[in-house]
Structure formats: C-alpha cells, structure tokens
Amino acid sequence: MSTPLSGCVASLQSSISLLSSSIQILDSGVNDYPRLSKVLQTTQHFSLLPTSTLLTLRTSLLSTLTPELSTLFARIDAHVEKLQRREESLRARCELLQGRLGRPSAAETHQHQHHHHPPPRRDVKKGVGSGDGAQAQADAEAEAEAENERAQLRLKQMRQKKERLSYAVERLVLQARQRERQLRVSMAAQ
Question: At what angle do helices 130-189 and 120-128 cross, to 10 degrees?
Fold first, then answer.
C-alpha cells in the first residue's frame, strides 16, 4: 500500500512544485501589471474627421467669410482711392505753390516795376526842389525794401507750407501702406 501511495505522494509533490513555480512565474508577470497598463494606455492626440464633414465645414466658412471679405475689400479700395485722390490734389497744390514761389504773380510784378522805375510824379517834384527829390527817392527805396521783406516773409511761409504738405502726403502714404500690411496680416491669419 505504501507503494501506490508513495507514487501518488510523489506525483502530488511534483504537481505542487510545478504549481508553485507557475505561481511564481505568474506573480512576476502580473506584479508589473499596473505600470504596464499605464504604459500601454493610448491617448488620442488628434481627432480624425471624415472628408464630407470637412467639406461642409469649409463651404459654410466660405459662405460666411466671403461677404464680409468683399465688403472689407470694397471699403479698402474706396479708402485707397480716396487717399490717392487726396495725394494727387496735394501734389497738384504743391506744384502750384512751387510755381507761385518760382514766378512772382502779376500784381507782384507790377509792384516791383512800379518801385524800381521812378513814377512820373516824382519827375514833376524834381523840378520843385532837389531836397524833395532826394526825400522821394529815399521813401521809394524804403518802400522797396519793405516790399522785399514782405516778399521774403511770404516766400518763407510758402516754403513752410510746402514742407507741411509734403509731410502730410508722406504720412498719408505711410498710413495707407500700414493699413494694407495690417489687412494682409489679418487675411493671412484667417
């Protein structure tokens, strides 16, 4: 009786040792399971949409943006045209003022001729006395000098005005360029 039981006992012992080694193997495999579940966990970074959804979203975006963009472009074109007209008028006015500065007007020419050539009545006074003629000539020279100073003052004022106008034109051109850049940047961002 001990022989069949000893075989059973030996078989049972080998089964127990096999089972304990299996438990050890399973324990070493399962022991790292929480870390493995965290490592193998998937995170969705991007969501994929079907092409039809993308096309509908694109058409709806275009349908909402197109009217707004067309009105913005129309406003920009109108404003640019307005600035161009203003620039042209300022340039024309600047040329006109330059022409006036370069050539004296008809009234100024008449006054200069009047002062540089002795008037006829001064010849009449010349016969009365030499003192009156010298006084009249001194008055005429003083008057010519005063007129020359007034002309110099007007010339200086016109130059200052020309500088202001050229500065205003440059400023308007720079503003137009800056607005165009801002529009391009906003269009690129959209």
Answer: 150
* Average pLDDT across the chain, whole number: 79
Give per-residue burial for 44-83: e unless 16+ CB within 10 Å, then b.
eeeeeeeeeeeeeeeeeeeeeeeeeeeeeeeeeeeeeeeb
Confidence of residue 125 (pLDDT cuts 50, 70, 90): very low
CA–CA gap between residue 163 and residue 95 (Å, rounded): 12
Give, as one character, the DSSP assignment of residue 92.
H
Query: Cα 79 from chain centroid?
Result: 15
Contact between 161 and 94 (Cβ < 8 Å): no
Look at residues 44, 28, 48, 47 and name the one whose alpha carbon lies nearest to residue 36.
28
User: Span 143-161, mean pLDDT?
Assistant: 87
With beta carbons less than 8 A apart as the criterion, state whether 65 and 119 touch: no
